[in-house]
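Follow-up to my earlier ticket, as requested here are the two runs.
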Amino acid sequence: MEKKTTGSFSRPKVLSYYYYLILFFFCIIISPSPCCGDLSFGFYSASCPSAEFMIRNTVRTASSRDPTVPGKLLRLLFHDCFVEGCDASVLLQGNGTERSDPANTSLDGFSVIDSAKKVLEFFCPETVSCADILALAARDAVEFLLRFQQVGEMGRFLQLQMFDLTSLIQALQWMK
């Protein structure tokens, strides 16, 4: 029996692709950067303790309204980090900026970053950098996406002892 293709990826291939893409970005984000300044976990724990919580809630709200938000935020982070480092320059508007570059005109998800920035500026003015907001938002979007993936039940048990070799071969002939 010939398997028909519709021109799109099958679900396992797409999930495998996303898994490797997420793993790649995770390695990039946590790898030591030649940039100036020391990165640390809990950087805002004293200056704005609820920063990560506010960003996470903004991302979850946006992602629950629009399921394409996680991909948009991950793509924003990619375009920001692979052009002269993770400096949030992709968020800047105006002539001659990364955002106005023809390669970036299809980028989306800026409204989620803007919403998170507005909330943070209200509670912790001039504290959390836009680069950190973008990195945390992409992280939280991926976490949101992976948490809500449907996983099929596993653990099927095929009782092979009830088949002899001949009947097993006959039963599995349809797989050719």
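Run two:
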Amino acid sequence: MSPEDWDTRWTEGRIGFHKTEINPYLKKYEAEMTRKRQKVKVLVPLCGKSVDMKWLADQGHTVVGVECSSQAVEAFFQESNLTPTISDVPNLNSGKLFQNVSHPPFCYLRDVEGDFDAVWDRGSFVAINSTDRTR
């Protein structure tokens, strides 16, 4: 699916993939994912408005979500009752950084965060066209 197709799904409200509850496997295996470390940096690709991100942040982790749809990002902050500051990401075309003072960074479109300690991916891989997955 192209970024444009992804954004269209959000515009049309075709987001049946979105879950309103924290993923039970994330809760069950968080310690394994983080290797029982506290305050790790977790990447959440194609995060949408996943409630898993807020839960991870509430556990003390730094969460960086990457998303193509600004609507999804805005919905995440609104539904999480968080107020972001929005700034451009230098040297990245149309990249926007959404941040909240009480929670770690959240990034729209592209990220310049460097290394991550863990990745939480509930389903972004299947959203990528199978022919594009090898890239």
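The only thing I checked on run two: Confidence is low (pLDDT under 50) at residues 107-111. Let me know what else you need.
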